[in-house]
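Hi! If you just cloned this repository, the fastest way to understand the data is to look at a raw example. We've pasted two of them here, unedited. The first protein comes first, obviously.
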Amino acid sequence: MTRASEVGFQRSQYDQKSSPPGENCGRMAYVGTGCLGVCMSCRKACLILLLISSTAALAQISHSEQVQISPPLVRALDPPAPDATAAALEQQADQLRAQKLYLDALDYYQAALAKKPNDAHLLNKIGITELLMQRYKDARKSFERAIHYDRTFADAYNNLGVIYYEAKKYRAAVKQYDKAIERDNSSASFFSNLGAAYFSKREFESAVTAYQHALELDPEVFARTSRAGVQAQLPSPQDRARYNYTVAKLYAKMGFSEQSLEYLRRAMEAGYKDLKNVYKDLEFAELRKSPRFTELMASKTPGIPD
């Protein structure tokens, strides 16, 4: 036995011999409490580790609910050939834009514009590409430049109106759409866009007039624009419901029962509050004779209160 061990052993014996019984009990209780404290510390450490592991697990589970920003746009092709003609560059740019390779498309449009300076049609295509990339400020400048070099270019006025519409500047949008229609009144899209702007301004009678012109020019115009167009800008579900009911009424008036029933169903799903008018609006007179109309009205589509 070492000397330190001997000293410790002798001290232990001395304590046991010299301490009164009560003090020994207290001393033993003290030692027991120390052990309990160690156990409690271990339990706390285990709880902390459990909480950490649980938090990590929850964090991993929640990853599927996180939004990740898309990587920046990259160029997929080599720069335009210096000896390419303006027509060839424009054609290649059109194909790239259709493939959603917008940066490459811009490169080719700009290269074509360098060979045909101040060409309004190229500037308009550049603006469309920038609009698709949500570069609204750049797109507006491109459309304004196109108009500057060709005051008769209806498409550029219409597209400038879209910029204002996206910015919820509906009065300015109406002004540009009117200018487009003054220069070309044969485009259903111009009238549809004008109707969307009026509808967003809650000028419903003017909207209906514009929409009717659009339908007369192209009965399928709403199939291409309604989901991604005006409805996205309307501030409330009730406004979107009213829009669907208005389109249903226009289709019914023109005798397009299939399209009318489809938009009537959308209005019902959106909970259009004045749906009872379908039984008295003259536009629906013929549609009300259809068994499919009766079936739709009896379907209790979700969104319609009893």
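Ok, and the second one:
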Amino acid sequence: MAVRGIANGALAALLAAHGAIMAAAPAGAQEGAPPQPPGQGSAPASSPASAPATGASEPVTRAGYFYIGGRYQKLGDKTVMVGQMFVQSRAPVRITQPYPVVMVHGLAQTGVNFLATADGRPGWVQRFVEKGYRVYVVDQVGRGRSGTNPEVYGPYDRLGTRSLEKTYTAPEVYDLFPQAKLHTRWPGGAGVQGNPGFDQFFASQVPFLANGQQTEELVDPALVALLEKIGPAILITHGQSALFGWAVSDARPDLVKAHVTVEPNGPPFFDVQFRGGKEFWEKSGDGRARAYGLTRMPLTFDPPVKAPEDLAVVQQAKAADGHIRCWLQADPARTLPNLAKVPAVVVTAEASFHATYDDCTVAFLAQAGARPDVIRLADQGLRGNGHMMMLEANSDAVADALAAWLASRVK
């Protein structure tokens, strides 16, 4: 299949292959074709048609969509499209922030995670629009509104209710890691089958590509193409999508004004699984889950890395209570000069499984010279959140914490 087995260094070739054949339609057809973004020229003016009506109780927002990337491919006697990514947009009538926000969902999810909460309240998109941002929300290539096609992309997988309950919505019920019992923020009580919020959340789950590296090979260039279209932007990634955020920040640090990585895919190098008890975790498999520490696809190290084996890995001898023992680079550590150019923050909830290992991601980045900021929600009085914090009872307050960091770091 044409999209599989791409060798190291193939990102540039993929970008070329994902040509602009899916340029957005004229603004009159699809509002998603953006005007010149703020910071790249004058801000889009409010037209009489888009201004709030006299006496309106709420300001009118502008919404639309477009597709980025994509190329035609023969599939038997049919011609199909490969690699296109769905992008949904929403903006206030008057944009006051200099850079747009791009929100990228995680494993088994789609962009609907950011549109509303599990119990029907407005989501992070609305919250950031109210703060004056134009917001773009994507569905990963090969998933959701971007289109699923096993004939093109190969095997798919999906998560069942038990997997989601254990780690995403009801960790307090299963108690598989030390922080699990602190989880209190899922709307309507424990997020298990029968809870209306969980049922709505589970209805939104979709199949995802079984091949993790292939996912990166497809999404990385599509996100770069999006930023090349809209101009410099802020990335907000969640879980799995941190893989793409690191890759795009590495490939085009000039286009990423900041990377807010909410509970990034990790820990560096290896996956772990949770089993409860005193020895609550173990390494999952012998092979490296992320060959380059943060990603499966190559990053720009200094000195250069020609193959994953060039990165020597050591494991910490000890860890703080409730944390795993991190895998880091052996000394002398190679640096990540491009990631060091992008302001980044790692956001971790109090009651998430990520509370056991996000500090490893922070340590890996600091070791490589990137030195991200850290937001531990509990330190800001936001207690009891799990991994799906954008859907939980205090989702607005969490969004406000991210926006406050952006206000202090993005100029």
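That's it. A detail worth noticing about the second one: DSSP finds ten helices and 16 strands in the chain.
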